[in-house]
UniProtKB/TrEMBL annotation:
<dbReference type="Pfam" id="PF11303">
    <property type="entry name" value="DUF3105"/>
</dbReference>
<dbReference type="InterPro" id="IPR021454">
    <property type="entry name" value="DUF3105"/>
</dbReference>
<feature type="region of interest" description="Disordered">
    <location>
        <begin position="1"/>
        <end position="22"/>
    </location>
</feature>
<feature type="transmembrane region" description="Helical">
    <location>
        <begin position="32"/>
        <end position="53"/>
    </location>
</feature>
<keyword id="KW-1133">Transmembrane helix</keyword>
<feature type="compositionally biased region" description="Polar residues">
    <location>
        <begin position="1"/>
        <end position="11"/>
    </location>
</feature>
<keyword id="KW-0812">Transmembrane</keyword>
<keyword id="KW-0472">Membrane</keyword>
<protein>
    <submittedName>
        <fullName>DUF3105 domain-containing protein</fullName>
    </submittedName>
</protein>
Amino acid sequence: MGSAKNKSNASRKARIAEMRRAEQARERRNRILTIVTSAVVVTGLVVGGVVLIRSQSDDSDPAADTKTSGKLVAGKDGVRTWQGELGRTHVAKSVKYPTEPPVGGDHNQVWMNCNGDVYTKELKNEHAVHSLEHGAVWVTYTSKAPKADVEALAAKVKQTPYTLMSPDEKQKDPIMLTAWGHQRSVTSADDPNVAKFLETYVQGEQTPEPGAACTGGLSE
């Protein structure tokens, strides 16, 4: 069994490493394209961006998570899974999510960096949800979580690509783990369910956009 687990972990690490190499290649190509086409793009963005922002900021815009419906249903393994539909529309205003932290839904077009990033301030849900769409696991905690657990979780996140961590005083439990469409609470940093959740949902089968970037977004 130990041998099979080691092979699984090695395969997972190799898959993540390959995605990171592909992401870096995409970023290099994007920088080249940006330099070549910047003069044309800037003009188009100035005009189009103003129109887009005005349109999305309008209170009459129905894009505030209208495609999300359903609820979280607890499984025997303690993982709560979203039963229903999760919107994936890019919006430029606040979204009212049915869960805290949210497990998906409409979100901002800019994601939070999630390459093992640890944040000390609460994040805007709209940006973090975009990270979930890219296959990240979001670790959140309240002030009730022991300092030692917070520090241990931060160390684990920093070593795990496609993860991010931040405080969230609005959640119901001291420590929670969230992926797109999935969520669970854990009792401590050494709870075995932490490693199990990360292994299952970091770039897991639930990912709407597997291999999408976890860098090049917001850093705070």
